[in-house]
Amino acid sequence: MALLHNRFSVLQVSDECLTDEVVLAQAWKKAQSYIRSTNSYADNFELDRSTISLASNLNVWKKELSSKNINLTPLRLVPSPKTTEWLFNDTTSGYQNWEPKDGITSPLRPLAHVEIKEQTFFTALMMCFADIVETEQGDTAANLSTVHDKKVVNYGNRLYCQYDENDNACFPWGNTTLYSKYFTDYQRFLDRPDYFSRKVLLSKSPDEKVFQVSFDISKFYDCIDRTKLTQKLTALALQIPEEKRTTLTKLLSEFVSWAWKEGDEELYQDLCQKDSENLPLGVPQGLVAGGFLANVYLLDFDKALHNVIGNLVQSKHRVVDYCRYVDDVRMVIVSKESKQTVQDDLVSYFNKQLEPLGLELNDTKTSVDFFRAKRSGISSKLKRIQSKVSGPISDREIDEQLGHLEGLISLADHMKSHQKSNDSNPLSLVEGQNHDVRGDTLVRFAANKIHKLLKEKRSFYAQNIDTNNIPIAGSWDFLQERLARKLIGCWTKDPSLSVLLKKGVELFPDICIVRPIIEQLKDVHSRDDKKQVHVAEYCLCELFRHASTLIHGRESWSFPAHADRSGMLEYLQLLANDVIDDESKFSLNVREQARFFLLVRNDSPLDTLNKEDKNFNFISKLLKGFRNIANDISKEDFEINVLLAYQFARDPQPVIRSVSCFLEKISKKKGEKTSSLTSTSLQPICETLAVQSFTLFHELISYSSNIDMQWVLHPNVKALIDKTCLYQNALGGDLESDEHGIALLSILKRADNPFSQENAVIHLLIKALKQYDFIQPLDVSKTKVICDNWSKIQGLKTELDFVGAIKSDPRPLFPIPKWVEGNHIALYNVGVFVRTCLLGQLDWSSSRSFKQRGNTFTGLNTSHTKRLLGMMHSPESIGGESAAMSSWLSGLLFYLLQWPGMKSKGTEFKSIVDISTLLDVLNKRLDEQKNMYCKLSQMPGYVEEVDLGWNKSKKSLHVVMVQSLMPLKADFTKYGLTLEHPKYRAKHRKHVASVAELILHKVHSQTTANEKRTDDIDLIVWPELAVHSDDTDILKRLSDKTGAIIFTGLNFIKQKGINGPNNVAKWIIPNKTANGRSFIERLQGKQHMMKDEKGQIQPWRPYQLFVELKHPAFPLEKGFTLTGSICFDSTDIKLSADLKYKSDAYLVSALNQDVSTFDSMIDALYYHMYQHVILVNCGEFGGSVAKAPYKEKYDKLITHVHGKEQVSISSFEMNMFDFRSIGKSYRSNKQTKTRPAGFNNV
C-alpha cells in the first residue's frame, strides 16, 4: 500500500495533474535549476524572488491553469552571437580594429527570455508527457548492437529516465535532474556511425563503398510549426478523455499564439534577420522544455527514417544506420555511386521527408565522407581524454592531458582556416582527419576540461608564502595564467564562444586581463553596426553573470597568487554602475546582469536611484543600513527584498538595523485603507521571515529588544515569539533526572542533545507512538519527558517516558504539505518529530549549517516550500560528519517524509502503512541497536551499509597502508596543535598531495607487473593526525580515482558545539548513485589521550562506526565489516572485547613512538579478536603492520614496514571469508588458527 495518492504514481496530461500544486512545484524546481546552470542570460534576481514567493506563486498559477484564461507573458528577444570569425585588422591610424572578418557580422541567434511562470507551465507539461515520449524514443544507453531492434535513433535533449525490462521509460519527476548527461549521450551518438560502418565493411560487395553522411536541419527550433506540434502532442494524449484534459487544450492553444514582446520584431529585423523572414514563431530557444518539444515534433520523422534502415533510398543507396542529435543527423550508407551522387540524392530525399514539417537541410553543413576503418575521428580522441580526466589523475598525467587539450584548440583553429575539400582523389585524403566534431564543440570541450584539470592540479599543490604570509606565485600560478590567456585569445577569434571568455577570466581574474577586454567591448559597443553592439552586450552579460555567481565567491587559493581579483571586481563594479546610470545606452539584459552583480558585491550607485527597478533600490538601501526607507512597497515585495538583502549581505548587521527601523515605523502606522504597510502587516511579515529564515528573525528580535524598539512588543509579534520558542532556552548544567519532567525542547536545544543520536530518538519515538496518534504534530515545547539515567540513555536500558499528556500543535509554524493525505498524515508527523529531535530546532525541514557566512553567493535557492520537495536526510546533512546516526534512520525519514515523484529506496520500509506497522519496524531496529551497543566501553555502534558495485566473484579487499612522514611529533610544538600556520599548511598540503600521487604510481606499477590486478583499490589507511581537514579534498580525489574507502587520522580539530580540540579519524566512503558518485564522510572519535595530549586535547567518542560492505553473492548475509580506532584507544581491552563479534577487520591509525609495544599489542589483538588487524603508524617512527590469525607464521604477518623517517606505501590482499562462517568457496585456502576459547562468531 503506497503512502502517496495514486495520482502521483504516473503523471498524465490530465487537468488533475497539470493543475496540481506539487506537480507545478516540481516543474518550477526543475526549471529554475536548469536555467541557473544553463542559460547564459538567466535573470538570477527573478529566480531568487520566485524561490521565496513559491507558495503564493503556486496558488496563483494553479488558479490560472484551472481558469478559462491562460495568459502567457510575451517572450523577450535575446540576440545571441553565432559562430563568426573575428580578426584584428590594421587601420590607417596604426590601431588594430577588432571586428568580424571582411567587416560582415553574421545575423544573431534569436534566443528568448521566458518568465519563470511560463517555464513552469511547460516544464509541467513536459513532465506529464515524459514517460510516453521517452518510451517511444527508447533507451540511449542501449548497446549499439541492439539499437535497431529497440528503435533508438535520437540522442539529443533526452530526459533522464530509468527503463524497465520491457523498455518502458520512467521519468523520476520528483528528482532535480532533468535532461540526461550531455557528453555521455553525445559520445554514443558520435560512436554509432563508426560502429555500423565497421560492421557493414564485412558484408558489403567489393564494388560497394561505405559512406558516412552528415546533415544539419536549418533553423530547426525557429521553423517548427506550432500548430503541427500541438496536434502531435494532442495525439499523444488521446488516452485521456477530452473533458479531462481541458487545461492541456487551453495551454496548447495559447502556445500557438504565444507572441514576442512589443518592439522585438524591429529588433529581430535589425539583428537576426537573414533574408526577409519574420520573427520566428517556432519553439522558443530558451524554453527549458524546448528540447523535449522539438523531439516530439520529429517523433514520426525519426520513426520513418528508422524504418528505412536496411532498405534502399532512391533505389540505389542502402541505408545501414540513421541517428540524430537535435538538428545534427548522421547516416551510414552503402552505395556503388560516387560521393557527389550520394550527397545529391540524399539531400533531395531528406528535404522531401522534411517538407511536410516545414523544415529543410542546411546545404552548407552537409558532408559525405568515405569511411576508412583505420582512421579514427576526433570524437575518439575526446573519448580518450574524457576517460583520462573523469577522475583525479596524477600531476604528470594532468600536464600530458593539458597538452592534448591545447592541441584541440589549435586543431579547431586549423579547421576554421582549412575548409574541407570536395576532392575525392584518394591522395588528397592521405593527411585528412575525420572531423566528426565541430570546431566550436572542440573548444568548448577543451575549455571545460582545461579548467577541470587545473583545478585538480591545484589540489596537488600549495602556494608558498613570504615572510608576511602572502602567497608567492609559482609554476602552477603561471601555468594557469598562460592557459587563461590562451583561452581568451581563442575567444577573440569568435566572440560567440563565451565559455572561453568566462573560463579564461575565472582562471586568472586580474585587471590586466579584464581591462583590454572591456576596452574592446566598449569600442565595439560604440559602433554603428547594431549586430556588433549586441555581440558586445552579450559578452558583458556573460562577464557580469560569471563574476557574480562564481568568481566573486571562490576561495582565494583557487586563483594564481599574482592575480588581483579584488582589483578586477572593482573595475567591473565601476562598469556596472555606468551601465545602470545611463539606461539608454544598454539593453535590459545588460542592465539586469549589472544590477545583480552590484547586489552580490554589496555595491550601488548610492546617490543615483535606479528608476527602472524599485526592488534593486530597496535592497541597496537595506545593504547600506538606511534607517529611513520610504514605505511605498507591498508586503510581498518587502519580505522578498529583506530575505534577499540578508542573503546578499557580507555583513548582515546593516540589514538587521535597516529592517528593524522599517518595522518600527510601520508598527506605529494605523489604518486599513492605505497603499503603504501598517501595523496590521507586522505579524504576517514577521511570520514569513521566521518561516523562511529563522536565523534572520532571531537576529531582528535580539537587535530590536536590546535597543528597546517597540515593534517587538506588539501583541501579535509577542505571540509569534512565543510560538517560535525564541526565549525557551536550552537546559543548563548536567542532564539530571527530574520527577516533574523536563520540557523536550529545552533538551533538544542543548549542544549535547541526547536525541540527536539514533538510539535515543528511536527509544523516545517508540514511547511516543504508544501514547499519541500523531494526527496532529507533537508540540515539543509543551511536552515533558523524564529519564531515570540520562548518562546511559544511548544504551537503551534506561526508563524513558513522557510526563502527563503529550501536547499537540494544531497550527504549527512549519506545517506539513497539503499533498499528505490519509494514513500518511500521522506517519509524516512522525517524520517531522524525528527530524525536530535530531536537528534540535522547530524548523524540521531545514538542515544544520556547518559553514560560516562568507563571500559566496549561490542564489537564494531554498525556502520551506521547496525543501518539502527535496529534503536531505543523510547523517551528514542532519548532524554533519559527527552525526551519531546511521543511514538506516535516513532511509526511514526518506520513506516517512517522501514527496511525490520520488521512488522509495529499497524494500525495508514498505511494510510501514500505519502507526502499528511502524512500531513493528522500530522495535526490531531497537533490538538490533541493543546488540550493536558496546556494553563495556558504553557507547552505541552505528552501521553504514555500503554497496561498492562489486561483481559476485569478489573475494578479497585490495588494501593500501600509507605511512606518510608529516606531521612530525615536533611540528605540534613548533606550529601549534592545529597546525594552522600558513607556512606549515603549504608544506603539509604538498606532502599529502605527493603521497597521494605516489599511491597512484605504485598501484599502476603493480598493475603493469601483474595482469590480474586492476588500478582499483578497496581500502586505504593513513596514520593518526596525518591530514588537515581542509586537505581531505585530495583524499576524495584519490578515492574517486581508485574507488577506495579511506580511513585517515585528521589533525586536531575544533567542532561546533563540542568541547575541543579533538583527535579524530575520518571515513571517506565512495557512494555511487544514479546522479554520479558522492561521498559518505563520517568521523571516528578518540576517547583515551596519550601523555602529550592530556590537558590539551579533549576526549570525544560518542559512538563507534562500522562500515559493512555488502556482497552481491550474499545479499541477505551480514557484509564484511570494517571498524577503526585511533592509536591509544586500541589498547583498551574493553573496546576490543566489544568489537570482536561486530567487526571483521580492525583498523588502527597511529602516531606512536613505542613501536615494539604496539607490535606486541597487535600480536594479541588479531588472535583475541580473530580477524584482520591493520595498524598504520606515521613515517617518523615506522612499524606499520597487518596481521591475521592464520596458522603459518608467513601467513600471519601479512606485511610489516620497517625503518624510521621514511614515506612508505605497502599493499596486500585481505580475504573477506577466511574467518567467517559464510563463503567457504571464496576462502584463500590458507590454514587458520583455532578460534580462541569462548569465541562465537555471530
Automatic annotation (TrEMBL):
InterPro entries for this protein: GrpII_Intron_Splice-Mob/Def (IPR051083), RT_dom (IPR000477)
Matches recorded under PROSITE patterns: RT_POL (PS50878)
Record domain Reverse transcriptase: where: 59-380
One Pfam family recorded for the sequence: RVT_1
Domain of life of the native organism: Bacteria
Family listed: Belongs to the bacterial reverse transcriptase family.
Name of the featured protein: Reverse transcriptase domain-containing protein
Species assigned in the record: Photobacterium aquimaris
